[in-house]
Amino acid sequence: MTNNPKFAFNERRELLLAKGRSSVRPRWFAALDAVLHPGSLDVCPAYSAPDTISRVSQGGLAAALLVADDEFIDPLSLLRIIRSIDTALPCCLVTTEATKTMLQSAFLLNAMSVVTHAASVDEMTLVLQRLITPGSG
Q1: Closest to 35 measured CA to CA, from 55, 62, 11, 69
Q2: Residue 78's CATH number
Q3: Is residue 137 part of a domain?
Q4: Alpha carbon of 112 to those of 23, 36, 66, 70, 71: distances in Å?
Q5: Could you state, in chain order, the average pLDDT of each consecutive group of 10 residues for the chain (137 residues)?
Q6: Which residues, including other chains, have CB under 8 Å from residue 27's CB and lie 6 or more apart?
Q7: Which of 30, 69, 78, 96 is most buried by its number of CB atoms within 10 A?
Q8: Number of domains the chain contains
Q9: Ramachandran angles phi, psi of 111, nearest 5°
Q10: Distance CA 25, CA 80 (A)
């Protein structure tokens, strides 16, 4: 795996929000607007694994927030595919399956964070800030 040259930081303008259409909208979604100052980054939604993979392949992403739900493939499988496309894209997994094995696998795949669906707004704001700010990891 190598870094794809089309992922130069100065071209990154979008936060990929990958989630299924029917997933419940967590309370912390409102924090996205506060963290992503107007004009700084746009939220780019992806509602399926193929849509997510296609969007990562196109480039231009600052980071990816992968919200696992019943409509998605296993988030670790999705992260493996993302890593085959871009080894450096900052990724955060949001899941209810935060087992020890899952956490170890996610961090071996260089996930920046793994949080549970029950995360507080303050916690998710901090995670999002770390995700989109270079060198803050």
Answers
A1: 62
A2: 3.40.50.2300
A3: no
A4: 22, 18, 11, 22, 23
A5: 40 74 64 66 83 92 83 81 94 85 92 81 79 65
A6: 121
A7: 78
A8: 1
A9: -70, 135
A10: 25
